[in-house]
Design brief:
Length: about 180
Amino acid sequence: MSDSFLYTSVLDPRAKPLLDELLFEYDSRYGTFFNAEGAKAELSKYPPEAFSPPHGNFLLLLRDGKAIGGGAFMRHDDETAEFKRVWTHSAHRRQGLAKKVLVELERQAIRQGYSRIYLTTGFRQPEAVGLYLTNGYRALFDTAGDLEAIKSLPFEKWLSVASPLTFESPVETHAVSHHA
């Protein structure tokens, strides 16, 4: 079995079930902790164009044509991409898919000229904290501190190679091996 990456848009119909589940998960974990609208406010905070080339991108990990994971990035500053919505569908967790998405997003950020990644995750997402810490991200907060008081947990990672600020369009999907 093989999975494939597809660079597309937040508006791609294949992304909707994944984003709907992400909304549900965030609301289940945080409710109205951050604001009265809950996760909907965060997921609609940025226009789809923010996650489009040349400054951003949106990635789906597909299996049999269905999105099982994904992620996005947008411009944070001239050298920094900000990762958002790195997600694995609940039925497909514990297979290393989030790491595959993370690595592919890093590669695409390099192709688009970025040399640094910035991201935040919430204090009620220990699996995300673990993912970033075990994949070379540096916590920009006191990991021994009161995470609920910190609320939004920032991370950074400097990428090893950055290309010029030209966008290389990935016109085809890239197959990745799947290990069951």
